[in-house]
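$ ./design --mode recover --in tokens.txt
reading tokens...
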């Protein structure tokens, strides 16, 4: 699949973009080969790969390390990388963090969380030429302040905050916005009001695209699975069965068999035994 330009993405209203996370070489390769439109190296890697209970501990070095690996697996893909928690408190910090993700790790765009409060940072990044994706609704880096991993925008105040946040991100220059865990009618309204694409996760069917976490989609994460996730396979269970068969074969002597072993010349062997 040809890599889209940021301008093409910005104009892809109604395109039903399929975005999926990937955090390393093999998953990025699989995801790209399966033909998704966009890959997100999300800071969700903190939970599904590094075993933390939130995205808060994820560092800049973690993001650079995983973005580099994902880029090696998907050299042609449009790769968005998350700015981790507290890496974009000021415009200077955000520029330094974006420089690492784009110049060192090979990301095509960064993503950051927040609405009107992050507008000055988004403006500084965009002014410097950094493609920025926004993220409103449930913002996992500050989930605690929002009362946990809960649906956002149920009442008038919080719904307005989501709507105004998304509109402010568009005005600040974002090429697209993730809407996470908001009621479907609110996501529809935001999608209608914005000229840039909305990418939903737990935000109903009317966004311009959808994003999910790789490990949730393929059944590799045994922790909490949100209700909005659709599991397309149970790779975790398949892997466990395969590993149990391997261990059993090793114990029974069935592995390695003739086909997985190497021969050597008889006379060499005889000389070694003899001498
Ligand atoms: O980190 C992540 O994977 C994300 C998606 C859930 C949108 O931000």
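writing sequence...
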């Amino acid at each position: 699949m040809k890599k889209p330009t940021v301008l093409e993405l910005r104009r892809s209203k109604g395109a039903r973009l399929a975005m999926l996370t990937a955090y390393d070489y093999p998953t990025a390769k699989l995801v790209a080969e399966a033909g998704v439109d966009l890959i997100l190296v999300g800071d969700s890697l903190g939970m599904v790969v590094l075993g933390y209970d939130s995205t808060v501990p994820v560092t800049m070095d973690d993001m650079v390390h995983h973005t580099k690996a994902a880029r090696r697996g998907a050299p042609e893909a449009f790769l968005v990388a998350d700015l981790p928690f507290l890496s974009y408190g000021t415009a200077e910090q955000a520029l330094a963090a974006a420089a690492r993700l784009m110049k060192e790790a090979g990301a095509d765009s960064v993503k950051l969380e927040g609405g009107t409060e992050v507008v000055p940072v988004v403006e500084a990044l965009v002014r410097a030429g950094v493609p920025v994706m926004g993220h409103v609704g449930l913002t996992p880096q500050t989930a605690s302040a929002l009362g946990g991993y809960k649906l956002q925008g149920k009442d008038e105040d919080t719904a307005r905050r989501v709507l105004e946040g998304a509109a402010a991100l568009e005005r600040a220059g974002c090429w697209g916005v993730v809407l996470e865990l908001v009621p479907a009618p609110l996501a529809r309204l935001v999608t209608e009001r914005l000229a840039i694409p909305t990418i939903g996760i737990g935000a109903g069917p009317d966004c311009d695209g959808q994003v999910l976490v790789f490990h949730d989609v393929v059944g590799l994460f045994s922790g909490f699975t949100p209700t909005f996730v659709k599991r397309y396979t149970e790779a975790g269970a398949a892997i466990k069965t395969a590993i149990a068969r391997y261990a059993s074969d090793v114990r029974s002597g069935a592995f390695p068999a003739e086909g997985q072993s190497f021969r050597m010349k008889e006379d060499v062997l005889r000389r070694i035994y003899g001498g």
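exit 0
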